Amino acid sequence: MSPARVFAVAPLALATLALSGCSPWGCTDTTAERGEAGARVEIVNTNGQPLGVTAVVVDWRLEPHPQAPSEGDRVHFRFRFDGPEEDSGTAVDACAVDKERVALGCQTVYSYQAFGPADDPLTGDDWLAVEHPEQVAGVLFIPNDQSYDRPTCETDIKDGGGMHPPEPPTRGDQL
């Protein structure tokens, strides 16, 4: 191979490695910043770009779970995903919060869980267990898509790295 040809191919090879999450300088992980929580959020990818899907908390109430009534009240909430890609498998974190927007309990909710009754097929429901249900003032979604998290450098040095969704919220996080 001629020297001119080697110089022409080398930048392409380096660009390919860098785009795959690898580079001769090492694998790097980056975590996206958590977006502003709300009862209605536009879901964004790890780069903060809108995906064209909105997640909405339709309503919520405290009541015993039908399969575990002896465990007391839980947060029963209804939600919907709207947009051209609502069944794409996007996911958001749902959190029961107190009046100061401190998370009391959270979990991930996927758009494919919204398969409600025939009169509203984009609506679904789920339950959040919280330690003190009497403190719940609302349910909020965090807009960051949690449906796809590529491998980390630690788990796969060759194919890992790149932008990852923010860490899921935990009890006590200010939203």
Keywords:
1 helix, 175 residues, four-stranded antiparallel β-sheet, mainly beta, globular, 10% helix, three-stranded antiparallel β-sheet
What layout of secondary structure does this protein have?
Elements: H1 3-19, E1 29-31, E2 40-44, E3 50-64, E4 73-82, E5 91-97, E6 103-110, E7 123-128, E8 138-142, E9 162-164
Question: How would you describe what is shown here?
Answer:
The chain has one domain (3-164). Helices cover 10% and strands 35% of the residues. The protein contains one helix and nine strands; from the N terminus they run H-E-E-E-E-E-E-E-E-E. The strands form three sheets. Strands 2-3-4-7 form a four-stranded antiparallel beta sheet, with no helix packed on it. A three-stranded antiparallel beta sheet has the order 6-5-8, with no helix packed on it. Strands 1-9 form a two-stranded parallel ribbon. A hairpin with a 5-residue loop joins strand 5 (91-97) and strand 6 (103-110). It is globular and about 50 Å long. Mean pLDDT is 83; it is low at 6-24.
Overall morphology? globular
Task: Name the structural class.
Answer: mainly beta
N-to-C order of helices and strands:
HEEEEEEEEE
Total number of domains: 1
Instruction: Tell me the number of helical segments per DSSP (H or I, 4 or more residues long).
Output: 1
Q: Major beta sheet, specifics?
A: 4 strands, antiparallel
Low-pLDDT parts are: 6-24
What percentage of residues falls in helices of 4 or more residues?
under 10%
